[in-house]
Every structure is written in structure tokens, then in C-alpha cells.
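[09:14] KT: can someone run the structure on this one? pasting the chain below
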Amino acid sequence: MPLGLKHNEVTLVPFDPTWKQLFDEAKQAILQAIGNEHMPIEHIGSTSIEGISAKPVIDILLGVPDIRTLDATFFKRLQRAGFYELKVKRPHEIVCAKFTDDTFEAKTHFIHIVDFEKQKWNELLFFRNYLNAHSTTKKEYEALKKSFFTTDLHGIHAYTNYKEQFVQMIVEKMDTAEDD
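[09:31] RB: done, C-alpha cells below
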């Protein structure tokens, strides 16, 4: 199944075991481009959750010491690997994307650049790990994602908002998991 979604498009496809390999290939390209083989990079998002349907886009988490210190040289290096900084504004996060071609119409990968081992890093990894470890919750999440298509809602922002309460419910479990 080919990767890629056009602007504001939302589509789910069945789990594809090649997603892990596609992540690994992207990770190696990123590490080579930025010249730091020890940069922490993780596979996140639904393509990293074994067995569930997902948007055909690979989400990558890249941890840096301080996102406020990233300069133009860093982003030029990412461009060598095919990743371009987006104008998306999120607190404590910079988003880059890779596209299917130079028309920049369909995105195949996202890099979520965050401060390493800070709150956003920990939340994103906890969510992935929790769903991979809890099959019932994983199935509930997949059912929720599929139910979006039975609504009158459209577009990526509506889709993200539709899932937000569920995501936050899982992330809140992080505090109790740390107490165990």
C-alpha cells in the first residue's frame, strides 16, 4: 500500500507490516542527513501500533536537547533527507514533512521534533507503548478512528479533534503508571 495523503485528506488503511521498515529507512536517512547517529528517533502514531488501521503516513519522533536552539542549518540538513519544515504551530513541537514528489501535494512522513525526554516526548511514547501493550484499548482506538467516517465531520483537524479526548484519557494514565 503506497504512503501519502493530500492536504486535509483523511483515509485509513489496514495495518501494513512494511511500515516498520519504511520508518527504519526514514530514520537512517534522517540520521545521515543531520550527521548525528545518536539522535533519538522513534516510530510513533498509528503506523507504529501493531495491527490497527492507520492513515498511510509514517510519524517520526525526533528528540533534541532544546528545540529553541535549532537553526537554519539543521533544517537544511533535514531537507537533504527530503523533509521540509511546515508552518504548523504547536507548543513545544516543530513539524516537518516528506512529500511524494516536488509538487508537495501529498505527505508521506511527518517528523515531530520535540525536546528529548520532556513532557511531549514522554506523552507520545507512552501513548504508543500503552496501545501496543493493551489490545482492548487498541481495538477501541481503532473503532473510534473508523467511527469518524460515520459523522458529518471532514478534514484532518476535525479528525484530530475527534480523537483528542481518547488520546488524553490514555496520556493521563501516564501519571498513575509512574506511581506504580
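[09:33] KT: thanks! Residues 34 and 74 are 7 Å apart (CA to CA).
[09:34] RB: yep, looked fine to me
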